[in-house]
Amino acid sequence: MNRDGATTLLGYLAGFALLFLVWHLAAVLLVRSTLFPPPWPVLERGWVLLEDGLLQESVLASLRRILQGFLLGSAIGIPAGLAIGSFRWVRLLLEPWTEFFRFIPAVAMITVSVIWFGIGEESKVFLIAYTTVFVIIIATAAGVGAVTPDKIRAAQCLGASRTQVFALVALPATVPFILTGMRLAMANSFVTIVAAELVASNDGLGKMLWDARLFMQIEDIFVALVTLGLLGFATDRAFRLLIRAFAGRYNPTM
């Protein structure tokens, strides 16, 4: 690990240490309620769930659904966004669809997805894809629209064909917008999977939260919340590392 990496890691550790310290002080000095436990009992309960394998099972179930829905939504959203941003007739045709459905939240579609697909994996994957696709479409279309005409004219003056202009000028300039849209969509995926598993699921972190609420297992609730936060942080960091590795030259600020 280089010096910058070590500094970053130490900064993250210090940030989490401060977070848990503030949590502890708030629980012990301010709230003083069994409904808001300090960090140590929550960590102990999390260790018990890890030893029993229940926490790993819930995490893997949720992450599997997030990954499947996210990839499906991205596979639909990126080509659709490129088409909307590149062709006016496609934009006129598909913008009503995009603007209509993106204001219907995925949570409102839970009942519909259960009716269509049941409480199996398909309903959760559908909801994740639904909450992902429109964010990516809009970000991708905005990226295509942000390509300056001067770049396109310069490529054309050098003899580039329309295909080469798209592949070598427009698409690379759009990559940062696509990646930003994907990062935002990933956050939406975490929100949606918990809501979906609360309503219709036999496993996952959302189901863990629901069961803990029914039986007033406060530590289990906080274990699930802490796990979601850590997973979200780790997923976003991994996403940024992948961006640097495979698309850093298109977006040097990542």
From TrEMBL:
Locations listed in the record: Cell membrane
Entries under SUPFAM superfamilies matching the protein: MetI-like
Domain ABC transmembrane type-1: 59-243
InterPro entries: MetI-like, MetI-like_sf
Pfam family, one: BPD_transp_1
Bilayer topology term: Multi-pass membrane protein
Keywords of the record: Cell membrane, Membrane, Transmembrane, Transmembrane helix, Transport
Coiled-coil region(s): none
Family: Belongs to the binding-protein-dependent transport system permease family.
PANTHER family linked to this entry: ABC TRANSPORTER PERMEASE PROTEIN MJ0413-RELATED, ALKANE SULFONATE ABC TRANSPORTER-RELATED, MEMBRANE SUBUNIT
Protein name: ABC transporter permease
